């Protein structure tokens, strides 16, 4: 079975993992997540070219250009086998709804169009769990949430990610590209960990086993209703896994989410607070075995990509506090 809206078998050519291609174009490689992905790719022996409006050092193969510039994209992909597309407006950015839609949707179309024209074999897209539209007042249909859950975004950012996924599926359907789409949860970068922990403590009414500093950077976006998260290092490893995976279908969709909640509050207690009925919990044994298990299922990524997150929120918090007190 395929993920999301249905499977699209690979037609008439060898999968990337079997052909061992390693020349990658990374859009948005100068961004916060992009720097982690770039580092992870280089560490795994990939030949990486960065495509970004901002530079990231003179020792990096890079092209400084905008993803809305179709000619620059096509030129940058001329000798590439794989594209990882991260360049986009993030939810934490203050921007108009029009800007979110134009950059995130048109930019994705431009990347896929250029990839198809230059015989790139696989494109890995960065979407978001925001495509689902789940919030405190927009409840999931069931727990744990898997890749078949319907998308009902109400905000421009989540809508832009949902539409970009549809664009990716369209190009995969043509039979010239393999398209893999990852939906990361809230990425807890090092400078956000303490502020996130403070917000979790305040909103969930919990106390951490460690003392938090009284002052820290504020979060620029609301805390995720599901308390889902991913560490940037784990997210980067997920993109590497998506590049390496041997696919049987031209379109695949995966959650890139830690298998635990960021809150020490038991997940089903949080679900009750949100108003999710007990009847919506399809796998209660999962939450009995691990009360802190994520509201999202990571089974598909574990099974097909051989990837799973390793870093708990508690380990991220311990590292942030150690750095804060150093």
List keywords for this structure.
single chain, 326 residues, alpha/beta, seven-stranded parallel β-sheet, two-stranded parallel ribbon, 37% helix, globular
Structural overview:
With 326 residues, this protein is an alpha/beta fold. Helix content is 37%, strand content 12%. The strands form 2 sheets. Strands 3-2-1-4-5-6-9 form a 7-stranded parallel beta sheet, with helices on both faces. β1 (23-27), α2 (32-43) and β2 (47-52) form a beta-alpha-beta unit. α2 (32-43) packs across α7 (232-244), α3 (70-76) crosses α4 and α4 packs parallel to α5. It starts with 15 loop residues before the first helix and ends with a helix. The relative contact order is 0.15. The model is unreliable at 12-19 (pLDDT under 50).
Q: Give me the number of helical elements.
A: 11
Approximately how much beta-strand content do the residues carry?
5-15%
What is the chains' assembly state? single chain
Give the termini separation: 50 Å
Order of helices and strands: HEHEEHEHEHEEHEHEHHHH
**What would you call the structural class?**
alpha/beta
The shape, in one word, is globular
**How would you characterize the largest beta sheet?**
7 strands, parallel
Number of strands: 9
Mean pLDDT: 92
**Could you estimate the helical fraction of the residues in percent?**
25-40%
Radius of gyration: 19 Å
Q: What strand line-up does the widest sheet have? A: 3-2-1-4-5-6-9
Low-confidence segments, given as residue ranges, are 12-19
């Amino acid at each position: 079975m395929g993920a999301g809206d249905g499977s699209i078998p690979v037609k008439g050519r060898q999968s990337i993992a079997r052909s061992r291609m390693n020349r990658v174009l990374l859009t948005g490689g100068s961004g916060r997540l992009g720097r982690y992905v770039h580092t992870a790719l280089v560490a795994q022996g990939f030949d990486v070219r960065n495509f970004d409006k901002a530079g990231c050092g003179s020792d990096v193969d890079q092209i400084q250009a905008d993803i809305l510039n179709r000619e620059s994209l096509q030129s940058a992909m001329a000798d590439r086998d794989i594209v990882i597309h991260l360049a986009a407006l993030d939810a934490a950015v203050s921007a108009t709804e029009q800007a979110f839609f134009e950059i995130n949707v048109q930019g994705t179309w431009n990347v896929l169009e250029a990839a198809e024209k230059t015989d790139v074999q696989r494109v890995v897209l960065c979407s978001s769990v925001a495509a689902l539209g789940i919030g405190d007042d927009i409840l999931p249909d069931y727990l744990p949430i898997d890749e078949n859950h319907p998308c009902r975004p109400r905000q421009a950012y989540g809508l832009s990610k949902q539409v970009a996924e549809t664009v990716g599926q369209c190009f995969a359907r043509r039979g010239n590209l393999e398209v893999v789409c990852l939906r990361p949860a809230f990425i807890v970068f090092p400078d956000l960990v303490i502020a996130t922990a403070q917000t979790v403590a305040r909103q969930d009414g919990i106390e951490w086993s460690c003392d938090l500093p009284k002052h820290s950077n504020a979060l620029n976006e609301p805390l995720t209703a599901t308390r889902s998260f991913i560490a940037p290092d784990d997210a980067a490893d997920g993109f590497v896994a998506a590049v390496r995976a041997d696919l049987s279908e031209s379109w695949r969709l995966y959650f890139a989410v830690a298998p635990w909640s960021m809150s020490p509050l038991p997940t089903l207690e949080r679900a009750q607070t949100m108003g999710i009925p007990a009847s919506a919990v399809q796998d209660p044994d999962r939450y009995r075995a691990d009360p802190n298990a994520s509201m999202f299922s990571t089974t598909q990524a574990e099974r097909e990509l051989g990837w799973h997150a390793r870093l708990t929120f508690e380990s991220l918090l311990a590292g942030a506090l150690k750095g804060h007190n150093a």
